[in-house]
Specification:
six-stranded mixed β-sheet, 523 residues, alpha/beta, binds NADP nicotinamide-adenine-dinucleotide phosphate
Length: 523
């Protein structure tokens, strides 16, 4: 471990710093301190982004008073210059003066960028260390490259922590960062992570791979860096304080995945059942990138979503016969032999809610709208249970092909008004993200049950029309919970806590709807 001269850290800092430092920013001094006050109840480690203030020096007397009242809080003062990716537009001399005053006010850590350190005399930076610990930082806003070379340059400047923050443009960039941390953290006190949506792996796993701590945002909309996760999510969703060498890594892989509810539902299930595992959203722009990450991290299981449900199959060691028949895989598990096996739990997600409601699926007349991945899971699963399946798809040829493969029937839209079904299943994306669109008109809904696989919004236009026609409705959230529950069972061998899973996902959907509504009001 680098032991820099004049190391005051033992008396300045607690023996073990918290794993999460919350980055706090505000446009005025009063608001910054107000936020720090509110946060300090649950967070004893805060970074004050002084560079977000138009006159940073003015906040320092308030910082001193804050620390008199909150002696246990460790504050990091950061006044990053615009040239290094921050907002401070003053000279290096004024940056150092502000940081020096911040140290005098009681901030126990001062962040100085490498770009500043190389442009001033070594004594100027070292002087800051007479009162506080020094984090020497470097940010790469483009990629994750030359980490060793950057560290070598940084080591020319004695510091207490060397912080290297890069940008993940691929999932594999996390692998590069994690291997770097594992290699170097025995020798130096490092803080390392990747920014960007794809950097989530490094933000959650970095602390157990050698990063002394990581950064989090105050909450959604308050990020000071791209891809920053809120402190609350890091602690309660990803359980960062418990991540250790035995923690198994799972994730949902697709493009896009930023709106996926899977991390919410799966992490809740792991927490509830005391499974030492963490589940991440893996934004994979290519399968090659995903498979590198799966091999190197290593990842123990995946939920596969669009557009990889079909194309993942050749990358797996094997898949069960049902999955091969459907030609789509939504679940990957790493077996004890290290091999990757594919399953399709979408079928369970569709069949289980129907089996709960219908006495039997044998002979039930079921119309499936769509012929994509979800429709295929429905059609093959229902046929296996003896249902009489009808298919209606926008592209007639695709619908007819699926009907032939599964020995189902295809129907024409104009015939719908004359036909009656036990169940209609919407397996198209129509109705997703709005309450206006429906795949069927009211008169076309002649069924006892209508199952909309779309789950956001919870009450789609199709379900509303179906209710008005007197049908019983099954919301898409039921499929979501059942397919996730089955994945949990495959991965852990334990029964899934379905009720808890349903509740967290309903809550998340409500919160999203409320955020969207307040966004509409303010815009
Ligand atoms: P997919 O493979 O892309 O298939 C989409 C199907 O919908 C295709 O048959 C397509 O017809 C049809 N379609 C697309 N846009 C249409 C439009 N504007 N008008 C009419 N038909 C249209 O997608 P998927 O994976 O099967 O998913 C379908 C939907 O199911 C998703 O949007 C999602 O909401 C839902 N889903 C829900 C869950 C859950 O857990 N609740 C799980 C998986 C999927 P063409 O053949 O003509 O392109």
């Amino acid at each position: 471990m680098t032991s820099a001269p004049g190391n005051f850290l033992p008396r300045l800092l607690p023996r073990r710093l918290p794993r999460v430092c919350v980055a706090v920013s505000a446009s005025d001094a009063a608001q910054l301190i107000e936020k720090a006050e509110a946060l300090s109840r649950d967070n004893s480690f805060l970074e004050l982004r002084l560079d977000y203030l138009s006159r940073p020096a003015l906040v320092l007397p308030r910082v001193r008073r804050f620390l008199e009242l909150h002696a246990g809080t460790v504050l990091v003062a950061t006044c990053r210059r615009a040239a290094s990716g921050g907002k401070f537009r003053g000279s290096i001399a004024s940056q150092l003066e502000i940081l020096s005053k911040a140290a005098a006010a009681g901030c126990r850590l001062i962040d100085v960028e490498l770009q500043t350190a190389v442009r001033c005399k070594p004594q100027q930076v070292q002087k800051l260390r007479s009162r506080s610990g020094l984090i020497l930082s470097f940010h790469d806003f483009r990629g994750t490259k030359k980490l060793d070379e950057t560290l070598r340059k940084m080591l020319a400047h004695p510091a207490d922590f060397y912080k290297i923050v890069s940008t993940a443009t691929t999932l594999s960039d996390n692998v590069t960062m994690i291997k770097f941390l594992e290699r170097e953290s025995d020798k130096h006190s490092l803080v390392g992570l990747c920014m960007g949506e794809q950097g989530i792996i490094s933000r959650v796993l970095g602390v157990h791979c050698g990063s002394v701590f990581t950064f989090a945002s105050v909450g959604p909309g308050e990020e000071t860096a791209p891809g920053q996760v809120s402190a609350q999510a890091l602690r309660t969703v990803y359980r960062i304080e418990q991540v250790d060498a035995a923690t198994r890594v799972y994730g949902v892989a697709g493009d896009p995945v930023s709106h996926s509810l899977s991390p919410t539902i799966m992490n809740a299930a792991f927490r509830r059942e005391n499974v030492n595992a963490v589940y991440l959203a893996l934004h994979a722009k290519s399968l090659k990138d995903l498979m590198t990450c799966v091999r190197e991290i290593p990842v123990h299981g995946l939920s596969i979503t669009m557009p990889y449900k079909q194309s993942i199959l050749p990358h797996l060691d094997n898949a069960d016969s049902h999955t091969n028949r459907i030609g789509a895989c939504n679940t990957v598990v790493r077996a004890q032999d290290g091999k990757l096996y594919g399953f399709n739990t979408d079928t369970s997600g569709i069949v289980r809610p129907l089996e709960r409601r219908l006495s039997t699926l044998e002979g039930a007349r079921i119309l499936v709208l769509g012929a994509g991945g979800a429709a295929r899971a429905a059609v093959f699963g229902l046929k296996e249970r003896g249902a009489e399946v009808y298919i209606l798809n926008r592209s007639t040829a695709t619908g007819q092909k699926l009907a032939r493969q599964a020995r189902a029937r295809s129907v024409k839209r104009q015939d719908l008004k004359k036909l009656a079904f036990d169940v209609i299943i919407n397996a198209t994306p129509i109705g997703m993200g709005n309450t206006r669109e429906s795949p069927l008109q009211e008169q076309e809904i002649n069924a006892r049950f209508v199952f909309d696989l779309v789950y956001d919004p919870a009450e789609t236009r199709l379900l509303k029309l179906a209710r008005e026609r007197g049908a019983q409705v099954i919301p898409g959230i039921e499929m979501f919970v059942h397919q996730a529950a089955r994945q949990f069972e495959i991965w852990t061998g334990k029964p899934a806590p379905q009720e808890e899973m349903l509740q967290v996902v309903l809550l998340e959907l409500q919160e999203r709807a409320a955020r969207a509504a307040s966004g509409r009001k303010t815009s």
